Amino acid sequence: MVLDLAKSKNMYMLSSSGGEILIEPTKYEHNKPNFEFINSEINKYDIKDNLTVVIEATSIYHKAPER
Predict the structure, then answer these.
(1) With bands split at pLDDT 50, 70 and 90, how would you rate the model's confidence at 16?
(2) What does the alpha-carbon distance between residue 48 and residue 6 come to, in Å, rounded to a whole number?
(3) How far apart are CA 64 and CA 23, in angstroms?
(4) CB burial string 10-19: b at 16+ within 10 A, e below
(5) 18-60 pLDDT, tens per residue?
(6) Do the Cβ atoms of 13 and 26 come closer than 8 Å?
(7) Measured between alpha carbons, how far is 21 from 60 in angstroms, rounded to an integer?
(8) CA distances from 55 to 6, 15, 21 (A)
(9) What integer pLDDT is reported at residue 37 of this predicted model?
């Protein structure tokens, strides 16, 4: 799972370890309903035990999702 965080545009995407795109890059806002939705999308793949989340940020915008 990759979370790309910025001031004006945030994206998430999910790929398999082999590089297959499971969830296409999708815009989202930092709020609880969106994180719950992203979680439900991840749960469709039953991969949480092997999930690595990469937070890509160039400023402080990753602080809220990181918490």
Answers:
(1) confident
(2) 25
(3) 22
(4) bebebeeeee
(5) 888 988 988 988 788 988 998 899 899 888 788 887 777 677 7
(6) yes
(7) 28
(8) 11, 14, 17
(9) 92
